[in-house]
Amino acid sequence: MATASDRIRRLLSEQLQECCEADVERRLDELGTLADDAFDGDAVRPAFAALGNETRYRLTRALVVADEELCVCELEPLVDVSESAVSHALSDLVEAGLLTRRKAGNWRYYEATPLATALFETAEAEVTTE
Question: Which of 2, 19, 79, 124 is within CB 3.0–4.6 Å of 13 for a Cys-Cys bond?
Fold first, then answer.
């Protein structure tokens, strides 16, 4: 089975018409730096990870479109999961920075954050322009 450095060696050989171990090591170092820059302190990863679940995506999308806070009881009919699963999903979305939560007596209200709104607006603008 070919390793990553074997594939990089083949790529560099094609690009440079020749390749030596120093070229491979240099490229691996560059890729290591890229990974450090891309993933260290990645503050937006939790938001994207949270949106990867259908229930969390639908809840966030509904709140962005609603453009107002909604009670949990208003959100539950929008997704086909248990009340417990809705509560868990909403907590995950608050933790990811996509929703805010406000408690009023026995009721909990949720609203999309500017981050959630911006993510959906950006995605929609890019999808509709293509």
Answer: 19
